[in-house]
């Protein structure tokens, strides 16, 4: 038997074995029928290439080994959060009940929240909190650049470590640099514990290359928390007038809800490093600081799959008067599109604010090709002027707000690890609605879509086919 014959037999074996294995795996693990059918088809058409692509981008579930962070010694078996549990009455009561059962987190009263727009306003407050830390600082950021702003945060974290504060920093393995992560090297060199989420160059870890930790979390001493859409980098400082400035919205939290924020970080840290964060350093006895009911909602391709999306769907279904949505990337799947369209058809006023131009041209092209059903239903779509606004905000009926890191696209809601905050407070809802209203510019109309050149429309429609992967 010649070498050519052996090679031919091997290739023929792979030609049938690889797509068969992918077919079995997809049928068992893929819930979305369109995605399942697409991957099976690609692998039978191009077995080798299709299998490699499936391993890298098609497997989106992970096993979370992390355990919930508990303060066993301090709490001695009792639940210190029980006294802060809140119930909701009225039209949004089903939403609160659903999210409570879905997330297994109670709605917490006794909180305060401060809205911070852009890095110009948020960074000084965050750095001040780190500078005053006494026991612990935990920080998670999708993008943590090794630039002027990143160095300021690194210096504050190193200073905290030197005065005896426990510091843990988690950055995404892709967002903060896949081949080189300067900020990780700087922090590790100074003795600060820093890890990269889902990062590996080894082939057997490649199935995780498509999964990203998009969360932004900062908790100081277990009592002051920050979360929202703000990464760490010079582009978020509008006064620096960088080439591509990014506006954003972040939130400062105090109260029992900070406990939920810290636990969310602890899950990710334990999964990445194997270290369990527990004790009074990270979870001190909570105390009320305000009167705003809140709850953390996480999602990711594990046991938290689609929980943020389910919260959005339920809120849209219960809306009776007005829905505000502000997102940098608006590429909703069929479920969210259907709920928004049905809400508009039953008379709910819907305002969708998106940037005229984002930092990803392909996403803008796909978005434009996807807007017609919303215009047909009567939704009002607004193209906000520069600078590019990266805020992710939602308000329903001037009562309920949903803010955080999640965009309205399939990547954010299915593949990324995201964190949002639901808020039941009319005052917060009013402030966010007013903010979104100031960006309500350049209303998109049917005429705008119809007047696009034919080749542009064809390009947009073709790019829209990539919607699940953008």
Automatic annotation (TrEMBL):
<feature type="domain" description="PLD phosphodiesterase">
    <location>
        <begin position="209"/>
        <end position="236"/>
    </location>
</feature>
<dbReference type="Pfam" id="PF13091">
    <property type="entry name" value="PLDc_2"/>
</dbReference>
<dbReference type="GO" id="GO:0005576">
    <property type="term" value="C:extracellular region"/>
</dbReference>
<keyword id="KW-0808">Transferase</keyword>
<dbReference type="InterPro" id="IPR022924">
    <property type="entry name" value="Cardiolipin_synthase"/>
</dbReference>
<feature type="domain" description="PLD phosphodiesterase">
    <location>
        <begin position="385"/>
        <end position="412"/>
    </location>
</feature>
<keyword id="KW-0677">Repeat</keyword>
<dbReference type="InterPro" id="IPR001736">
    <property type="entry name" value="PLipase_D/transphosphatidylase"/>
</dbReference>
<feature type="transmembrane region" description="Helical">
    <location>
        <begin position="39"/>
        <end position="59"/>
    </location>
</feature>
<protein>
    <recommendedName>
        <fullName>Cardiolipin synthase</fullName>
        <ecNumber>2.7.8.-</ecNumber>
    </recommendedName>
</protein>
<dbReference type="InterPro" id="IPR025202">
    <property type="entry name" value="PLD-like_dom"/>
</dbReference>
<keyword id="KW-0472">Membrane</keyword>
<keyword id="KW-0964">Secreted</keyword>
<comment type="function">
    <text>Could be a virulence factor.</text>
</comment>
<keyword id="KW-1133">Transmembrane helix</keyword>
<dbReference type="GO" id="GO:0008808">
    <property type="term" value="F:cardiolipin synthase activity"/>
</dbReference>
<dbReference type="GO" id="GO:0005886">
    <property type="term" value="C:plasma membrane"/>
</dbReference>
<keyword id="KW-1003">Cell membrane</keyword>
<keyword id="KW-0812">Transmembrane</keyword>
<dbReference type="GO" id="GO:0032049">
    <property type="term" value="P:cardiolipin biosynthetic process"/>
</dbReference>
